[in-house]
Every structure is written in structure tokens, then in C-alpha cells.
Specification:
The chain contains 9 helices and no strands. The chain is mostly helical and 215 residues long. The protein starts with a helix and ends in a 7-residue tail after the last helix. The model has no long low-confidence stretch (mean pLDDT 93).
Length: 215
């Protein structure tokens, strides 16, 4: 709950900045985050099993995070070698020999993924200990919205935000005309503010029902 509140407060601040600075990109990004946080909050507070399921997603997320870094290193290492080889052609004599020696060491060393591979394996073991399937994927916010029967409200606004915050044809075209998406900012601001207040209210009610005061 503390993580959700911290995240919601940060996203709300960015929403205010996006609104004040007339940035549809920033407003859409923060609004979408708040949409996601609201359905996550609703889902987690619905039952202890839901809370446990979402908490387990942290382990899966962390495993995928380090796994992706390792994959990135392996994919880009050949390009590093190729760029090194191409740049070396401009040098001669001692400089060329020093570069060749360095290149050979880099080739032998290969992509440096030992630390991230170890982290990946550590989280794989945690998944096994927690009884999480090795094929498990973190739940997407759209799936969570469907589970709590809020997808009809969630999906359309989520798509609006995504079209603006990702480099879609729409957002790219909009960048050529200043202020072309400014008219949607009030919608983003009001929606995001509503989600922020709903998140706080949900958690506040949950805690009050159990005699716990929010800090």
C-alpha cells in the first residue's frame, strides 16, 4: 500500500506539471499510470489471495528485468565489435596494434552478463520456492481491470493515453503542429485526478475499517 501511495503521489505531481506546462505527452503518461494504479489498488484490496498474487508478480518482474538486460548485452555486443573493427581502420602502427589487442580481449571476454545472469537465476529460484510457474508472466493492467469488471471504463482511456505517450503515427504527426493535442489535456487532468483521489479513498477506507490510520 505504501508503494502504491508513493507511486500515485509521484504520478499526480507529474500530471500537474503536464497540465501546467501544456504537455499532452506528460499528462497522458501520468494519467495512464494512475489508471493502472487504481485498478491494481482495487484488485489488491479485494482479497488476501489477490494481494499475494500481485506481490508474487514482483519476483517475476525482477526475473524478466535482469533477463532482458542480459539479452540486450548479448544482442549489442556483436555491433560493438563491428564498430571497433571499422574504427580501427583509421589508425596505423602502435595505435593500431594497441586497438587490435584491445579488440581481441573484448572478443574473448564476450558480453558481460555474469551479474545479470546470476540475478536472473536467483529470481528463478525464488519463483520455484514460491510455487510460481517458470512460464508465469506479470499480469497486465488490462487483465486486472477485466478481473475486477472495470475494463469497460479502463480500456478506452488507457488507449487514449497510450496513443499519445507512445511514438504512434498519431503522436509523431502531432509533434509537427504545436498545440495540436492541447485540447485533450483537461480530459487527462480530470481523469488522472479522479483516479488519484479514488486510490487514496480506497486505501483510506480499507485501513479505517481495520482501525489503521494513514500516515
Amino acid at each position: 500500500m505504501l508503494g502504491i501511495l508513493n507511486s500515485a503521489l509521484l504520478d499526480f505531481r507529474y500530471l500537474q506539471i503536464g497540465n501546467k506546462q501544456h504537455s499532452p505527452y506528460l499528462a497522458a503518461w501520468s494519467c495512464r499510470n494512475l489508471l493502472e494504479l487504481k485498478v491494481i489498488t482495487t484488485y489488491v484490496l479485494a482479497s488476501a489471495d489477490n494481494a499475494k498474487t500481485f506481490k508474487n508478480d514482483f519476483v517475476v518482474d525482477a526475473k524478466e528485468f535482469y533477463e532482458a538486460i542480459s539479452k540486450r548485452h548479448r544482442a549489442t555486443h556483436p555491433k560493438l565489435i563491428a564498430a571497433w573493427q571499422a574504427g580501427m581502420q583509421e589508425f596505423e602502427g602502435d595505435e593500431r596494434r594497441a586497438l587490435e589487442a584491445g579488440l581481441q580481449r573484448e572478443i574473448e571476454r564476450g558480453p558481460q552478463t555474469q551479474e545479470t545472469d546470476e540475478e536472473t537465476e536467483a529470481y528463478r529460484k525464488l519463483m520455484d520456492e514460491f510455487g510460481i510457474s517458470p512460464k508465469s508472466k506479470p499480469m497486465r493492467s488490462g487483465e486486472i481491470a477485466k478481473l475486477i469488471s472495470q475494463n469497460e471504463e479502463f480500456d478506452p482511456m488507457f488507449k487514449v493515453c497510450s496513443k499519445m505517450m507512445h511514438r504512434t503515427a498519431l503522436s509523431i504527426a502531432a509533434s509537427t503542429t504545436k498545440g495540436s493535442l492541447d485540447e485533450v489535456i483537461p480530459l487527462l487532468a480530470s481523469t488522472g485526478t479522479g483516479e488519484f483521489l479514488a486510490i487514496y479513498d480506497l486505501i483510506d477506507q480499507h485501513f479505517r475499517a481495520r482501525g489503521v490510520q494513514l500516515p
